[in-house]
Amino acid sequence: MSLLTPIESTALPVPLAQASGGAMEDAAKPGKDSEYLSTLERGLKVLRAFDATHPEMQLSEVAQVTGLSPAVARRCLNTLVQLGYVAQFGRKFLLRPEVLSFGTAYLSSMNVEQVILPPLQKLRDDTGDSASMAVLSGTDILYVAHVSTNRRIRLGANVGTRFPVHATSLGKVLLAFQPEAGIAQYMAAVDLQRFTERTVTSHAALEQRLQGARETGYDSALDELDYGIVSVAVPVFDANRKAIASINCSTSTTRISQDELVRTRLPMLREASAEIGNALQRWPTLMHSLQHN
After folding, report:
1. Which of 63, 78, 84, 151 could form a disulfide with 73 if both were Cys (CB 3.0 to 4.6 A apart)?
2. How many other CB atoms are there within 10 angstroms of residue 237's CB atom?
3. What is the pLDDT of residue 62?
4. Is residue 108's pLDDT more than 50?
5. Angle, CA 148 vertex, CA 194 and CA 157 arms, to 5°
């Protein structure tokens, strides 16, 4: 999750329907479930609009980023201010620390610290690399666990960080083991943005990498998301051998070559993946949370 500037607010909560314009705003979108709440979707869209690129925004900027009308964006912001999730400084809006309650609720209720962190911490301790676990989220990966080192790299990651699937070893190895329909859906939606000279930017090249990951059981990325970063990743399977997450080791290219990273880290990653997969059998709530519908 992104941490943004804390500020004080004395506003009291108000009913969501009252602030958002009533029942007409809650009408389901065509083709969606009859109980789908468009107002909730819009409110969440406004919350997710704030990020490192947009830490604070005026109303017009929020409307532009979210694609909502200014009137709807204003009602969403007003509600979020009243509930304590957003603050207003003059004409600028920004997140408050209260939004962290969403992330901590997931981490604590799913027992992520007890189940996932120990194998990742062992990877970090044994290798000196950062170790992470991620899941698919649209055309991105979403970090659900991360154990860092004291070594500084240009591109940091934390729980809640999102990176494009096609530019990461975590993303490509996880996508490779998805059903064909899921891969096709991803290919139809993705914009293969270039981040470095080594970023995969064609569908043909990406499909070749996915095939290689399926054959070897891993993917390794060198300078694909940013220069100076090398990583290797393997999938995490559930009891039905469905890939529900991926884990990796990542470090600076000044420490180790890509070939040496793969050779030395791959056995440890596979052991950690198996350990996490077995642990998930004992924590079915977390496993069900990680599984894709």
Report:
1. 63
2. 17
3. 96
4. yes
5. 35
* Whole-number percent of the chain with pLDDT over 90: 73
The pLDDT tens digits for 244-253 are 999 999 999 9
Name the DSSP letter for residue 226: S
Q: What fold, for 16-99?
A: Arc Repressor Mutant, subunit A (1.10.10)
**213: which 2 tokens?**
């990951």
| Distance between CA atoms of residues 87 and 149, nearest Å | 33
pLDDT given for residue 33 in this prediction: 75
Q: Which amino acid is at 103?
A: G
What single DSSP character describes residue 195? S
Domain definitions of the chain by residue range: 16-99, 110-290
Between CA 222 and CA 287 the distance in angstroms is 30
pLDDT surpassing 50 at residue 6: no
Q: Say if CB 191 and CB 252 are below 8 A apart.
A: no
Collapsed DSSP state (helix, strand, coil) of residue 222: strand
128 phi and psi angles, rounded to 5 deg: 80, 5
CATH class of this structure's domain 110-290: alpha beta
- Rounded to whole angstroms, how far apart are CA atoms 93 and 110? 31
Q: In b/e form, how buried is each residue of 169-200, taking b as 16+ CB within 10 angstroms?
A: bbbbbbbbbbeeeebeebbeebebeebeeebb
Find out whether 38 and 29 touch, Cβ atoms under 8 Å: yes
Cα–Cα distance measured from residue 161 to residue 289, given in angstroms and rounded to the nearest whole number: 18
C-beta of residue 158 within 8 angstroms of C-beta of residue 143: yes
Let me know if the fold of 16-99 is the same as that of 110-290: no
Q: What pLDDT digit, counting tens, does each position of 165-196 carry?
A: 999 999 999 999 999 999 999 999 999 999 99
